[in-house]
Amino acid sequence: MVARPTADPGVTAKPAGRSRSSIPCPAAKANGETTGENKNLDQLDLVQEHHKLDLYISPRDCNVNWLPRQCMLYQAESTGTPQPRMKATIFLALASASVSCVSALSSKISLDYATYEGTPGSDGITRFLGMQYAAPPVGDLRWKAPQDPAQATAVQSAAKFKDVCIGVKQTVGTGPVGGFNYGEDCLYISVITPSSATNTSHLPVLFHIPGGGFAQLADPNLDFTDFVKTSGNNIVAVQINYRVGALGFLAGEEVRSGGALNAGLLDQRKALQWVRKYISQFGGDPNRVTIFGGSAGAGSVGLQMTAYGGRDDGLFAGAYADAPAYSEVNSDSYSQFQFNKFATITGCGSVADKLSCLRQADIANIQKANVVGNYTDIPAQFTFNPVIDGTFVQDIPLRLFQTGHYVNVPMIVGDATDEGTLFAANAGSPEEVSEFIQANVPSLTEANLTTINQFYPLMAAQQPFHKAFFPSAAAAFGEATFICPGLTISSAVGASNQVWNYRFDQSSLALRLAGYGVLHAFDTGAIFGPNAGPMAGLLGIVENGLVFSSFAKENANVVPIMMNYAISFVRTQDPNTYKSVFAPNWQTYNNNGGKQRIVVRNSGVIYEDVPAAQQTRCAFWTEIIANSFAE
User: By residue range, what is the domain housing residue 624?
Assistant: First the structure.
């Protein structure tokens, strides 16, 4: 474990320029954030002869939209000082005082390889969408570590999202939801920032890693406008694309020796390095980045924390893992089987240099092999996953957490109550439960399967449109893949840092009627709001894929609770600083030596201890997932 102090939000560099005097606004903080009405008046350039003059600054002019658009000073009226106002003694030039502020964010940002033109919105948000953070990973760059983008002389438009990285069972072209396209040239990054920000604002940064089982990007191109505005325009939001499916996680000795294993994780790292280098030009603070992800995105959060054995490269100061997804890591032999079959399907199986052949193959041909069903005869959920490469991923991820090999930052970990219903087989018997679970956890023995059937017997609560043992299969998969890894990580990190854990227990009418309960990733709509956008990975399941819609109506009560906890954590690495007035103070997971989490519902937030029976089941799953390989 690498000890890492929380970034000090009170330290920031002063802008360059002549000697200046500072007139702080009420409740202003040195890092450029506001607390509703807090911005620093910075500064007055002084020229020629100076004379002393008393001026007053009204707190109402110190709101988030005020600086740097205008520098307005209010002179005291002869009849008295208006209240509430703050008196400040300053020096002004008698002849030609030059009043200046740090200039507002330009819609054109010049980086050292390209200039991008974003779109300032009438809502006070400027959007820079689809900026290249790495070279297109095509041709000879397939299955290689991401490379720096080429120099661009012309101004590049950042007005719309670019292609989403193509995944399993997808074809090049328009995607089913959201109007985005799938493609291989996809290593793009987007930044949503307050128009009032400057390159000295030093605002905290949300860095969003999409989920999708490492097979697809299920939640790309989310709209973080509500999240940023609810923060009082005190957050810069970043989201990325990264390679998934076979293009991101094909393994085998050929890839190890002639390319890069875990290319998708290296893409994420490249994007984090991009943020470290450039985010200040968009108003963000590179020392105050919170990495956030759901599902495989949450698994990626953990993989970035444990990267290089937990080496701290200073890329993030906090971590938020929503349903961290971890399954058995593929063994070297199974990875080689995948590679050989992938090469055969694409027509490269009999070629001496298979990897070179694959790099020359047409993307449509590649996608014929980029299908889970090609590699298993029983319904496994995920095929192309991160593997141990000895460098970036040095061991099984959960074991790295258990042995202290992670970057030690504050963390939020959470899950939905019914994590497994989206994935489970419609099992009608204990034998079908066993078949489904073993397809996803291949190392299970007959004794393990017997234990699983005892842990998850026929359940009294049945789900509409499903067979009798569907709830059992769903509960087993949900705990094995999401809930138990989350609790394991909470215990590991919570032993030396602050960790907050939650169970999201609010569903929608549509989900309940469809038999899914509190669906996997459903809480994303509560965190980012009903306008965040569709989740393509859930298309055809409920609500035409627009799973966030209920948070505008029936589930509206949970939005301020979840969103403000998250906003507060991004801003201060503590969910309580700016929490909703309707939410209780959130105690840490290991508070008073226990394992305590909050349960979030429309009716409010309650505390619960993790049940002893669930702890027993999780000890069983963690022993398997943290110590065995998929063969």
Answer: 418-562+580-631
